[in-house]
Amino acid sequence: MKKGVFPYFADGIQVTAGAEAWDGVSGFVNLAVAGTFTINPASYNGPGEPVVESGAAIYITNTTGSAISVVVTGGVLADGTSATESIAAGGSYTVMFHETHGFVTLGEVS
Amino acid sequence: MIKNVLPFFLNGGIQVLTDNTATESWNGKASFVHAKASGAKSFTLGLSAENGFPVKPGTIVVVMKVDADANAITVNPTPDMSSEAASVELNGENQTCMFMLKAPHGSNTKGEWVLLAKDADTTFSGGTVSADTVFSGSVEIEGSVGFYNTAPQPQETILAIADTSAATAQSVGDKVNALIASLKVTGLLG
To answer: What residues of B are in contact with residue A105 (Cβ under 8 Å)?
Structure first.
């Protein structure tokens, strides 16, 4: 039987000040200012860890008054292409990195 | 070292809310809540677990509306990470929302709830539909109607029926005929 992937959220909040990329560390992101947010699995996941670990989950909430685009590179549900998700004002988006499938969507609130 | 928040479900059974309008609070031990109400009702998620202990980060709580009544049930997570979504409204049978408690951060010393997922609302509270739309069932319009960017008009006006009291007594066939005639006059129907 294959080993399971257990989701976890790194305990840290990234608060954006405009268009930004994921810092590779925070499990929670507050989109506080308009601007596209980009997630890349090549991001660092802490010192000594060159890529995102399998199971790393990110909760992204949009606290602005307008929709914001979140661009996931590396694929959602193993499609291997970039995926753009529009997060409504007050909405949220949760993704998890899976070593086989790339980023997969866990939930979305619009 | 980075501390992680691991999501988990409590083994505390199902909390069933009373079928009334009284505000109720989470019991701190159930990850699954069945909500029903006889009118508008609120349910509050706080930071106290069973016996008053702090809730552990990663705790997941799923709230489901289990009755078919039209009564809306409002779920209030306190505190909530998202300032824009202070509460969640469940208005349809089997509609659910799922929260997780994240760890304390900054000035927050006990943690805060994040809304991970929520079923789509079963009612449409207004907005714009930009794509072609097909209604496979009957459509009931209770307000005014406008076509092709015209200001919405009362349906009696569009149907060219001046006497609304008499209109209530008209047969459906008469109304349809009036609508067809009106559409022909405006050139919308050949």
So the answer is: none
